Every structure is written in C-alpha cells, then in structure tokens.
Amino acid sequence: xxxxxxxxxxxxxxxxxxxxxxxxxxxxxxxxxxxxxxxxxxxxxxxxxxxxxxxxxxxxxxxxxxxxxxxxxxxxxxxxxxxxxxxxxxxxxxxxxxxxxxxxxxxxxxxxxxxxxxxxxxxxxxxxxxxxxxxxxxxxxxxxxxxxxxxxxxxxxxxxxxxxxxxxxxxxxxxxxxxxxxxxxxxxxxxxxxxxxxxxxxxxxxxxxxxxxxxxxxxxxxxxxxxxxxxxxxxxxxxxxxxxxxxxxxxxxxxxxxxxxxxxxxxxxxxxxxxxxxxxxxxxxxxxxxxxxxxxxxxxxxxxxxxxxxxxxxxxxxxxxxxxxxxxxxxxxxxxxxxxxxxxxxxxxxxxxxxxxxxx
Length: 360
Prior knowledge:
Strand content: 15-25%
Structural class: alpha/beta
Distance between the termini: 8 Å
C-alpha cells in the first residue's frame, strides 16, 4: 500500500504540531516495513535523514497551490491513503479513490476564535467540515478534543481514536550540561519557567503578574520564558523588555537544550486558556520539574494528580500556588515523583502504533 503524508510542519523549527508530526512519522516508519511512504514537504529538511526508506517529495509551490500540486502527485502515483497530521485542505479536496486520515489537534477556531489567528480561523472554517466528512478516520490527542468533536460536529465516536502525544526519552535522562546551559543563557539561580509562544491563548501576561505578586517574598526569583513571538504579542514583548532585570525571554532554544531548562527551574507554570493536549507540561513532568497548569480543556487528563491545577484567570491563585511549591520541599518532591511516573505512560511508540492501526 502507498501512503502519503504532509510533513511540512516537521521541517525547521518545530512547535507542538511539528513535534507531533516528526515523532509520530519517525515511529511509524520504524514500526512499518511493509507499506511504501511518500513524505511531502515544501523545503529541504536535513532532519528527514532520520526517515530512511521513505521517499521525500519536495514540491515548490506557493501556499494554496502547493496543496493542489500534492493532490495531483498523489493521484499520479496511485497513493492509497493520505495522512494529514496538521492541515485540512488536501483532505477536503482529495478524490474519493484516495482515503484520508486526519488529526484534529484542537477546535480552538470554533470554540475560542478570539484566541486564534484570524487567518487560521478562516481557513479551518472553510475546509474543516469537508475534510472531516470525507476522512476515513480521525485522530485526536485527547479525550477532551474527541468529546468536543462529537458534540460540535456530530462526528461518530467510532470514527475517532484518541492518540495522546508522547514525550522523548531525552526528558527522562539526567542532563550533563546544566552548568553549560545556565552559563550560555545567563540563567538565574532561582526561576519560574514557562515554555510557550507569546500569544493570547498562552496567557503569559497572567504569569508575569503572578510572579510580580510574590516578588517581595522571593527577591531572587526570576521568570524565564522559552518560546517564539506569536500573534498579538507586541504589548507583551514591550512588557517583557521593560522588565529585563526580572524576566529572561529566549526565543530560540535548540530541542536538545530544552530538558536542561526544566531541570534547572524551580517550578514550571502553564496557565493556558485552552489546549488540545499540552506537550510542555508533559515534558516538565518527565524532567522531574513540579508543574502548575490550568484546570481547563485537556490539561487535567494530561497531568492528572501530578500537577497543581489552577484557574488561569485567577492570578492570586496562581501566585499562591507558585509560592506554595517554592516553600514546601515535600510537595515539590512529591510532584516531581508523580510527574515522572505519569509521564512514562506517554510514548511516541504507542502513539504511532495506534495511528498505524487505522492508517492500514
């Protein structure tokens, strides 16, 4: 059987969806030595060396035209199944003789459009329903997203498989480069960590306010934010710039260095307003860093009882939770232990295994 996959988000700097695409496809190719795979992208990607045995098809075309060029190639090659891990455009227009399977990471465009980029919201509202109706099967990273999919779009429950994201073994391994990373980024001795892009949904402004509330009690405590510049981030950038003495913002952090940040931090905080899954809290738990996260959307099912859950709109509750972890060594050790134990249940191997069952 011939299987095509959209691999664009796995190229270059990878965020949540790109991390998912890269890892799940890498594991699928490791597990499946029977089918033929064609990986579609729009640029050269050195990381594709990890996908030995699969054919890489680079198509240079502008935006929307790229999708139709892929459809033309899929048809010409006689591809049987197309897997769309991030985009709905190709599945919406595929000829019926090519089956499609799609991943629905979240439904923010429909549930919280004000927290989503306008362009992305428009595209999803244009193509999502067509892609969903034509898809042979649908993957979601959480039960919460599956529930929303059934409720909002009357999608049959049996058509949906929950395939939680995994966490790399790098986050469980004791880092040998803590001192090097600390010196490279001039990290403070005591800091609260956020791994998040600067955009409204991530609610980083609330975290800044919460850390300010306890600054008198912890004068040495700083905030370190690791993540790129998102949409509508100008005001937040200015606020961070004005607080350079207390906030360190690192836009570009190589994936190999990220585990060290979790290990160096006193506490990891994720006050997101909505998540389809929430990979950073899982990475933090695997690293043994105590986690505070929002009590909404998918985050409770990811973190379970291994994190302190807070109302992301209540900065006092967030500030008090940070203070409690900083002052309660027993609690800190308990959360670190529970987090590591829980994180071991999330593997990319299992995600790929469940995905393969429905692709074949």
